[in-house]
Amino acid sequence: MNIVVLYNDPDTDATVEDLDVLVQRDAVMEALQRQGHTATPLGCTLNLQAAQQQLRELKPDIVFNLVEALGGTDRLMSAATLLLESMNIPFTGARTSAILTTSNKPVAKQRMRSAGIPTPDWRVTNSVISDTPVQPCRWIVKPIWEHASLGMTDDAVIEVASDSEVIAALQSRSTATGRPHFAEQFVEGREFNLSVLAGQVLPPAEIDFSSFPVDKPRIVGHSAKWDADSFEYHQTPRSFDFSTSDSPLLEHLTRIAEQCWKVFELQGYARVDFRVDSAGQPWVLEINANPCLSPNAGFAAALDRAGICYEDAVRQIIEDV
Questions:
Q1: What confidence score (pLDDT) does residue 130 get?
Q2: pLDDT tens readout for residues 102-135
Q3: CA–CA separation, 178 and 242 (whole Å)
Q4: Are 212 and 201 in contact (CB under 8 A)?
Q5: Dmax of the chain from CA atoms?
């Protein structure tokens, strides 16, 4: 097949996380070429007219969509899929509707709540403000549209005594960053990531926070994901090894991940992030449509644990269009 690998073209001042899309592009290109496909890379910017013209000239049978952001924000990633849909070009991964729903985290949480999928309580700036005590008193402030690790440091976890303090904290963070934020009840406990390939839930991974000091928030923030020189980067390993006593919990997480796949009408590949509290109750934090496909990222690690080679995963993603 004639396949175009569409990716967001990083700016000259791109950060390490921005440049990661090039790693994904090269890995996918290599996998496609090994399968005998003609693979052509195409960088995409907000100049969608230029992308449209190039696509018309290339006449792809299918587009492998790796666009994660446009114009410096994840909020515009759906512009690429809207373009592809308007041109009636088949493409991999989530449709525009699923990208918009999962990218807007409060909207995604409302959809989860309506479908009976457990997710922590949350607040946005237009929430009803009161001075009544809130439980639990720890909340975490996150960007609404961007990847959750963007700008996330330990001070994103806050101690508050009322709803009004929660709203004030997220308003302050939104003003300081120029990006809308929301606040979510912070779930103390274990953290799991479950990757999904073409509807098949891959082996669960748990983040190991055991090396964290007692007073350090157990979160996978920006440093843990992108700063190779940081404590967090080296002390948040993922593990796929569990005791038999965890089997009921892992089965429960798998069922919820399957439900998320169906409720959000996902395609190709996805990842569902969980916290599990001290009572063993799972809570879905986020649903990631089209997660990172870098060979050293969590999705590839789950593939390896499942015994699925990267090349075969790329084939399944294409077949699930």
A1: 53
A2: 999 999 999 999 999 999 999 998 765 555 555 6
A3: 41
A4: no
A5: 63
Residue type, 224: A
Rounded CA separation 9/5 (Å): 12
Looking only at the bridges linking them, the beta strands covering 62-66 and 2-8 are parallel
What separation in angstroms does the CA of 295 have from each of 23, 36, 177? 8, 20, 31
Cα–Cα distance for residue pair 129/94, rounded to 1 Å: 35
Alpha-carbon distance of 1 to 159, in angstroms, equals 54
Residue 287 near residue 272, CB atoms below 8 Å? yes
Q: Convert the pLDDT of each residue in 45-68 to its tens digit.
A: 999 999 999 999 999 999 999 999
Weakest mean pLDDT among 150-159, 206-215, 233-242, 254-263: 150-159
**Nearest Cα to Cα of residue 222 among 119, 146, 285, 273:** 146
pLDDT band per the 50, 70, 90 thresholds, residue 245: very high
Q: Take residue 200 and report the two structure tokens written for it.
A: 């098949």
Cα gap 227→128, rounded to integer Å? 38
Helices (H), the chain: 16-34, 48-58, 78-86, 96-103, 105-114, 163-177, 222-226, 231-234, 247-263, 298-306, 310-319
Query: Which band of pLDDT confidence, cut at 50, 70 and 90, is reported for residue 147?
Result: confident
Q: How far apart are the first and last CA of the chain?
A: 14
Whether the model pTM is above 0.90: yes
